[in-house]
Structure formats: structure tokens, C-alpha cells
Amino acid sequence: MTSRELLEILRGLASCNLVSADVVEVAPAYDHAEITSVAASHTAYELTTIMSRQIAEARAK
Fold it and tell me: How far is 31 from 34, CA to CA, in rounded Å?
């Protein structure tokens, strides 16, 4: 799975009720090109954004 495909799947989860998330197996010391670190940060951002929107929508009701 590519990073683009992963982000597409995560964005598709926006309608699901997410209660927690975890990004694992990122070892920057072994990632000299920093590709894994960048993908992990984008993944964490997408998950945080989805959950933040869900909290905001729940409070607006």
C-alpha cells in the first residue's frame, strides 16, 4: 500500500465514529530518507483531523 492509498482510505473513514488511533513502527533512526517519518506525520494529521471534526460536530448538536 502506498502512502497515497493509505491517506485515501483514512479520508474514507471520516463517516466512521473513531475513538482512538495509533501510528506504530516508525523508526526515524533507520529511515535515512525520512520517507516513513513523513508518511507517519501525514497519517497522524489525517487521524487527528477526522477525530477533531467529529468532536466539533458532536458539540454543535
Answer: 5
